[in-house]
Amino acid sequence: MIKRTIGQIATIVGALNDVSLFKDQLVHGVIIDTRKLTAGNLFVPFKGENVDGHTFVRDVLEKGAGAAFWEKSAGPAPEGLPVIVVEDSLVALQTLSKAYRNELNVKVVGVTGSNGKTTTKDILFALLSTKYRVHKTEGNYNNHIGLPLTILSLPEDSEVAVLEMGMSGFGEIRELTQIALPDAAIITNIGESHLQDLGSREGISKAKFEIVEGLKSEGLFVYNGDEPLLQERVKGYGGSKETFGRHSSNTMYPTKLVPSGFGTTFSVNVSDEEFHLPILGEHNVMNTMGAMLIAKFFGVGFEDMQKGLSTLKLTGMRLEVSTGAKGETIINDAYNASPSSTKAAIDLLQTISTTGKRYFVVSDMLELGPNEEAFHHEVGTYVTDDIDCVLTYGPLSSFIAEGAKETLPEDRVIHFDEKSALIAYLKVVVKSDDTVLVKASRGMKMEEVVLALQKE
C-alpha cells in the first residue's frame, strides 16, 4: 500500500494549507470508512446525502489515523491536527492514486464489459499469478472511488494489477482508464445493463470503448470479436488488438467445448493443450479466452495457464455452487443480471447433467430503461422444455413468467409476489437430486433464497 509522508502527499495533491508541522509524519494506506481504520491511515472524507465524513475527521485522527483530507468547502479545518486541506476530496484521491500508479513498476490490466467483468478479473488473476505478483480489484471496488482505492492498496512490489472498471454513464470509463493507464485492456461483451442511462446498446459500446483512451500506445486491446457493435467501433482504433469468441474469425476460438461436472473442458485453436475451467457456462469459456490472450501478451505459456485455471477462485454469488439442506445442488448467480447474462444462465441450466429436476429461480433485471417489460418477456420465451420449472419473483419478473408460458405448460411456471412464499414453495418441492439456479440483479437480494435453502 502507499507509504508516503504528509509533506509528499500534500505536494502531490496541491494542499491549500501549511502542513510543515507534520510534513515528515509517515502515512500508510488510505480509507474512506472509519470502521476499517488501522494506525497511520490517510482518511478521505466525503459529503454524502445523509452523512458528512468531515464530522468524523477529529475522532479518526485521535484514534490513530496518520492524516486526513479536508475539503475547503467544509469550513475551517481543525487546528493542530495532521489535516491536508484540498479543493475536492475525490479529485485529491484520484490525483494521489494516479501519482502512486506512475511511481510503481507495475503492469496494469483494465477489465470492463456489460457482463463477466468480475469473473474475467478473477480468471486473469489466476493465470497471471503463475508468473507474477498480482493484485486485483477486491469485491466491486470498480468505480471512481473504488479504483483509486485499489491502486493505493497495491503493495509496492506488485508486478501486475488487474483493475475492474464499471460505469453507469458516459465519461466514467474514460476517467478510470486515464487514472489506471493500462498496459492491456479487455471488453468482455456488450449487453443491456445501464440502458436506463445510456439509451441503447450502441451507447453502451461507446461508453465501454472509452477504456482504450488510457491504454498505452504499445498496449494490447482485447475484445469479443463476435459482437458487431465492437467490430464497428474498433475500425478507427490503430493500436494492437486481438479478439476472442465462438467463431473462427477470431484470434482465439474454441475447437472443443464439453461440460464436465461443474466445469468445462475446452481446447483452443492456438494451442495443443486441453484446458479445464472449474466453473460453469460456455460464456465463461469466452471470458477465459479473452483472459488467455492477455496472459499470452504478458508471456505466460499455455501449460502455465492450465495450472493457473486449476487455482481459480471466483468472487461470491457468481455461479457459486453449494449444497442445500436436502442435498440439492444450488447455483447462486444472484450478483447481477441482464437479458444476455440471464439467457446465459438458462443455457447453463439446460446443459447440466442431473437425474432430478432443473429449477430456474429468477427475479427482476434492473436498470433496463423504458423497454424493461419487453426485455423480461423475451427472456421468458428463451426458456426451453429442458427446464422443469420456472419460478419468478418481483414485479418485472411477472413478464418473464408470461414469456415462459409460451414455451412451457402453465403448471411449470409460477410467479410469486412474496419472496417468503417462493422460499416456502421451494422447501416443499425440491428433492435431493434436483438443481436450483438462482438469477437476479443484486438489488433483489435473491441470496436470501439461497441461504434459506441451505438451512434445515
UniProtKB/TrEMBL annotation:
<dbReference type="GO" id="GO:0051301">
    <property type="term" value="P:cell division"/>
</dbReference>
<keyword id="KW-0436">Ligase</keyword>
<dbReference type="GO" id="GO:0005524">
    <property type="term" value="F:ATP binding"/>
</dbReference>
<feature type="domain" description="Mur ligase N-terminal catalytic">
    <location>
        <begin position="27"/>
        <end position="100"/>
    </location>
</feature>
<comment type="similarity">
    <text>Belongs to the MurCDEF family. MurF subfamily.</text>
</comment>
<dbReference type="InterPro" id="IPR005863">
    <property type="entry name" value="UDP-N-AcMur_synth"/>
</dbReference>
<comment type="pathway">
    <text>Cell wall biogenesis; peptidoglycan biosynthesis.</text>
</comment>
<keyword id="KW-0132">Cell division</keyword>
<dbReference type="InterPro" id="IPR035911">
    <property type="entry name" value="MurE/MurF_N"/>
</dbReference>
<dbReference type="InterPro" id="IPR036565">
    <property type="entry name" value="Mur-like_cat_sf"/>
</dbReference>
<dbReference type="GO" id="GO:0047480">
    <property type="term" value="F:UDP-N-acetylmuramoyl-tripeptide-D-alanyl-D-alanine ligase activity"/>
</dbReference>
<dbReference type="Pfam" id="PF08245">
    <property type="entry name" value="Mur_ligase_M"/>
</dbReference>
<keyword id="KW-0131">Cell cycle</keyword>
<feature type="domain" description="Mur ligase C-terminal">
    <location>
        <begin position="317"/>
        <end position="442"/>
    </location>
</feature>
<dbReference type="InterPro" id="IPR013221">
    <property type="entry name" value="Mur_ligase_cen"/>
</dbReference>
<dbReference type="InterPro" id="IPR000713">
    <property type="entry name" value="Mur_ligase_N"/>
</dbReference>
<keyword id="KW-0963">Cytoplasm</keyword>
<dbReference type="GO" id="GO:0071555">
    <property type="term" value="P:cell wall organization"/>
</dbReference>
<keyword id="KW-0067">ATP-binding</keyword>
<dbReference type="InterPro" id="IPR004101">
    <property type="entry name" value="Mur_ligase_C"/>
</dbReference>
<keyword id="KW-0961">Cell wall biogenesis/degradation</keyword>
<comment type="function">
    <text>Involved in cell wall formation. Catalyzes the final step in the synthesis of UDP-N-acetylmuramoyl-pentapeptide, the precursor of murein.</text>
</comment>
<keyword id="KW-0133">Cell shape</keyword>
<dbReference type="GO" id="GO:0009252">
    <property type="term" value="P:peptidoglycan biosynthetic process"/>
</dbReference>
<protein>
    <recommendedName>
        <fullName>UDP-N-acetylmuramoyl-tripeptide--D-alanyl-D-alanine ligase</fullName>
        <ecNumber>6.3.2.10</ecNumber>
    </recommendedName>
</protein>
<feature type="binding site">
    <location>
        <begin position="113"/>
        <end position="119"/>
    </location>
    <ligand>
        <name>ATP</name>
    </ligand>
</feature>
<dbReference type="InterPro" id="IPR051046">
    <property type="entry name" value="MurCDEF_CellWall_CoF430Synth"/>
</dbReference>
<keyword id="KW-0547">Nucleotide-binding</keyword>
<dbReference type="Pfam" id="PF02875">
    <property type="entry name" value="Mur_ligase_C"/>
</dbReference>
<dbReference type="Pfam" id="PF01225">
    <property type="entry name" value="Mur_ligase"/>
</dbReference>
<dbReference type="GO" id="GO:0008360">
    <property type="term" value="P:regulation of cell shape"/>
</dbReference>
<dbReference type="GO" id="GO:0005737">
    <property type="term" value="C:cytoplasm"/>
</dbReference>
<dbReference type="InterPro" id="IPR036615">
    <property type="entry name" value="Mur_ligase_C_dom_sf"/>
</dbReference>
<dbReference type="GO" id="GO:0008766">
    <property type="term" value="F:UDP-N-acetylmuramoylalanyl-D-glutamyl-2,6-diaminopimelate-D-alanyl-D-alanine ligase activity"/>
</dbReference>
<feature type="domain" description="Mur ligase central">
    <location>
        <begin position="111"/>
        <end position="294"/>
    </location>
</feature>
<keyword id="KW-0573">Peptidoglycan synthesis</keyword>
